[in-house]
Amino acid sequence: MTTTPDRDANTGLSRAFVDELARAGVTDACVAPGSRSTPLALALAHDERIRVHVHLDERSAAFFALGTARMSGRPAAVLTTSGTAASNLHPAVLEAHHGRVPLLVLTADRPPELRDTGAGQTVDQQGLFGRALRWEADPGPPEDRADAGAHWRSVAARAVAHTLGPPAGPVHINLPFREPLVPTGAELVPAPGRSDGRPWTDVVVPERQPDDAMVERVAAAVRANAKGVLLAGWGARVTPATGVRFAAAAGWPVFADPISGLRTGDHAVSTYDALLRIDGVGASRRPDLALRIGAPHTSKAATHWLAFEVRQWMIDPDGAWLDPRRAAEASFACDAELLLSGVADVLGPAPLSSAWLDEWMDVEARARRALDDLLDGWADPFEGRVARDLVAGLPDGANLAVASSMPVRDVESFAAPRDGLRLLANRGVNGIDGFTSTVLGAAAMTDGLTVALLGDLCFLHDSNGLLGAANRGIDATLVVVDNDGGGIFSFLPQADDRENFETLFGTPHGIDLAAVAAVHGVPCVTVEKANALLPAVEDAIGNGGVRMVLVRTDRAENVARHREAWAAVARAVA
């Protein structure tokens, strides 16, 4: 007597799940090796529509996926096995949550009967990421049931939809599998999708269109407040052309962090960080109305310039409450691109000049000239000049990723206005976690140039991101500023504690970063002079692959030079 073997539910439903991801637009998945995740890993490898990036380190895998999603705007998946592997995804989940990046987190798990029994690699993975999610689900172990296909396909389609929001962000699907984890050779549990190739559930995300009353309200406020300012931080999601058109119609200056993409045009004030440090400059030039798009500026001088008596209106498509000083008078939950464009249409052409705008552009010109003259006169590398020169020197169409800590501050403080450059940064939580992996993930999604600016501790913090990087077919140049420690702390009050500063905050590492790169097969060139930076970057780009340009600086001298720069601006506008 022969028996019919059980149908293979793990393989059949995993393939249906992955097919649904591909139908919904997922093109890239990062996989960390593991046993319990075998059914889904094999299903991903089986589907030619999805590129699989294998990473040994789960944290690096998650940030690589985050980089692909940040660059493309499409959800990216990351898959791990159970236990501590899943917990290593948490930093990337937090960045995706606060940075509004569509990240699909897939964690394999033991089946329910093995939980809370002491089974190896088993932790409570439901609710693992707390409230930092748009949605989470656990479909249970794959089973041969009549409704199994609809169940698993629906979960996959809904998961992708929730990553796109609004607001976009991370989704966690916990997937328990019973053994056998490899294909049995038996007939697969059938789980057909829609016959026309559509997702199981096709979700349409509406635009946050401002209504006519909202446009007129903002336009009336702009007309009534000639002394206004547009402030743009990361996540502004407004095109440079619209930003320039609004500023021209309003007759306002624009204070834009470069990572907003709006530090461009004739109204851009690029030296506000230095100017607003000068006693009297900010206090005598406070606006009557500030329109804020995106997150608050990194510069403390800029955020403190907006005193509570200044009327501040926030614009955010998701209605995010980006107001750490609790000073906003109004919040507009709408698409800032559509609102500013509509306001510019209503306002029409503005006067060619005004006393308010002329005054800001005059101090901008003097401060810009003072900064550039001072930086150009220093032959040895200075961190502020590295940031300025990279922003100015990369060709149109290039991508520049900027790490947290000092690099993002130096770009904000020293970069001149320009267009044609896309800047990326992990500013949701402002951490240095996984930055190299984020850069490589972003580079994997573009045929254009990708360059990154990061510090030495940021580089070391994600050195595992370089594992296998030389063999991924990715072109990316890492410009690493090495001041042998945590340079940002030298600007903080902790620097006055001479007994404990170096041990607890300066944290000198004494590591040869070029040797670290060499271990991973990443070529490195060291820059000795300031004017050698851009030629070295151009050579790295021209040679292709993942390469590193190392710039060594001194922490104490870096602080002194920053202060010299601020003093030069103060003299120029006195």
Give the tags:
Rossmann fold; alpha/beta; 17 strands; six-stranded parallel β-sheet; 574 residues; single chain; 20 helices; 3 domains; 37% helix
List the helices and strands and how they pair.
Blueprint: H1 9-23, E1 28-31, H2 38-46, E2 51-54, H3 58-72, E3 76-80, H4 84-87, H5 90-99, E4 103-109, E5 135-137, H6 148-163, E6 170-176, H7 212-224, E7 228-232, H8 240-250, E8 254-256, H9 272-275, E9 289-293, H10 300-305, E10 311-315, E11 330-332, H11 336-347, H12 355-376, H13 383-393, E12 399-402, H14 406-414, E13 422-424, H15 435-443, E14 450-455, H16 456-461, E15 476-482, H17 501-506, H18 513-519, E16 524-527, H19 533-543, E17 546-552, H20 555-573
Parallel strand pairs: 1-2, 1-3, 3-4, 4-6, 5-6, 7-8, 7-9, 9-10, 10-11, 12-13, 12-14, 14-15, 15-17, 16-17
Helix pairs in contact: 1-2, 1-6, 3-5, 3-15, 7-11, 8-11, 12-20, 13-14
